[in-house]
Amino acid sequence: MSNISIGNLNDNYFSIDFAGKTDPTDTYRFNRLNTGSFRVTAEGFTSVVGMQLLDSQGKVVKDIETNGTNSGTFSIDNLGATNYALKISAPARDTNYQISLTPDGKVDPLTGLGVDSGFFSPDATGQVGFDWLHDGGNYQGEVAIFSVQGMEKFAPGSPEFIKEAARRALSNSILDT
């Protein structure tokens, strides 16, 4: 069992983890400073995953179970300001998963549109599928795929990292060439 303390949930939180026979439940502890909307999304799993949101008294606020490989998502419009625990469990068998916690009012600083998140997950053959997030046609963009091999020397998000990522994307090669 893993206990992860997030602290104040002021921004999006994302984690890739594992649950199963040897580690059946992961608990993410966080607190909300203000009342507002809140969304939890779990994806990337290969078996049934349970998600349970508990308040500071241990009372269940929301409880859902995924079926198979469908994503598990729940939203709460008026989540109070207090401490919470999100429990992720895999009672059936071992599975990896990706969890995303999104507090209210998050917007893209460039477009001003609401932020939605998604995942790029390889299937059993190593192929990556893309699930486009629909925004009614307001946003248009491009996708670049490249290898991050050899980019360890750059700090993620730094100007150097971004410049190298752009160079690799524009080279029409997924490798560092």
Care to describe what's here?
The protein is mainly beta. It has a domain at about 1-105: Jelly Rolls. It is about 5% helix and about 40% strand. It is built from one helix and eleven strands. The protein has one helix at about 160-170; strands at about 1-10, 15-20, 25-30, 35-45, 50-55, 60-65, 70-80, 85-90, 95-105, 120, 130. The strands form three sheets. A five-stranded mixed sheet has the order 1-3-8-5-6, with no helix packed on it. Strands 2-9-4-7 form a four-stranded antiparallel sheet, with no helix packed on it. The longest helix has 12 residues, at about 160-170. The chain is globular and about 55 Å long. It starts with a strand and ends in a 7-residue tail after the last helix. The model is unreliable at about 105-115 (pLDDT under 50).
Task: Specify the structural class.
Answer: mainly beta
* Discrete helix count: 1
Strand content: 35-45%
Helix content: under 10%
Name the shape in a single word: globular
Q: What is the architecture of the domain at 2-105 at the second tier of CATH?
A: Sandwich
The CATH class label of the domain at 2-105 is Mainly Beta
What is the mean pLDDT? 76
Quaternary state of the chains: single chain
Count of extended strands: 11
Taken in chain order, the helices and strands follow as: EEEEEEEEEEEH
Kindly, what is the distance between the CA atoms of the first and last residues, rounded to a whole number of angstroms? 43 Å
- Can you tell me the residue ranges where pLDDT is under 50 for at least 5 consecutive residues? 107-114
CA gyration radius, whole angstroms: 18 Å
Sheet bearing the most strands, described? Answer: 5 strands, mixed
In CATH, the topology of the domain at 2-105 is named Jelly Rolls
Instruction: List the strand order in the largest sheet.
Output: 1-3-8-5-6
